[in-house]
Amino acid sequence: MINLEGKVAVVTGGTSGIGLATVKLLLEFGADVALCGRDRERLDQVGNDLKQAFPGRRILARACDVLQPGQVAHFAQAVHDELGNASMLINNAGQGRVSTFADTDDAGWENEIRLKFFSVIHPTRAFLPQLEQNEDAAIVCVNSLLAVQPEPHMVATSAARAGVMNLVRSLATEFSPKGIRVNGILLGLVDSGQWRRRYDEREDKSQTWEQWSLALAQRKNIQLGRLGRPDEAARAIIFLATPLSSYTTGSHIDVSGGVARHV
Ligand code: NDP
Predict the structure, then answer these.
(1) Residue 184 has pLDDT above 80, yes or no
(2) Which of 73, 103, 190, 243 is the most exposed place for a label (fewest CB within 10 A)?
(3) Does 1 map to a domain?
């Protein structure tokens, strides 16, 4: 248990899955939280639900596409004006792209590389002045095990993920004199919006989520035998975002249930 009262956290892509689980955990630990997503309807719904569930906390839910630097700058200004300077930035917004080399055209590569890099670059640049104002400031980037264990059916995502892992190391080096730690998590398969969408598109509609996800876990050889839960990813994020990990920077935590093959 850690007390985050008086701290301000920002979670991009905070309206669903891992981002939403992280928002809830931060609120439970006492932080004030700003979250963003692109879908305004879902954002309003989630914002209202959170305000009801956590009446004592200040919550800012703003529409913002992390790929639009102007929108990210406005979001950062709103956080500064309404909550105060953020000391935790969770770069979580995004999704994976399923495609092999054969079926990824230049536009596909450009979109994927742009999403993976600029979903980190834009918020990091916009919130840096606020993070610099805080002791114990930290950035956490939500990444995938694909960064170190690429899959041919997710070729562009895997390559871009590796680049972002490298970027985390550079940011950690550049920001450590400012006292800002930068780390990431490497996810395996976590039950969230992405997998629920793939489940909705399954061929055998008679399969329940439990049957479908257990078969998926077996196929992927997940050693713990199931998909991860969003709160299991959120706990690793909270560790890296808070002084619980005060002597850790430039590193990554594996949250993959044993999918990683390397030592
Ligand atoms: P979800 O689809 O459940 O949530 C994604 C969140 O990101 C939503 O809030 C979505 O809101 C938001 N988002 C997406 N694109 C943007 C954007 N351009 N600007 C702002 N918000 C955006 O997925 P997960 O919780 O699974 O994903 C969280 C992160 O974890 C992603 O980066 C994903 O790639 C990564 N990841 C997930 C894995 C998994 O197994 N679940 C595995 C490896 C990595 P909206 O659509 O309204 O914008």
Answers:
(1) yes
(2) 103
(3) no
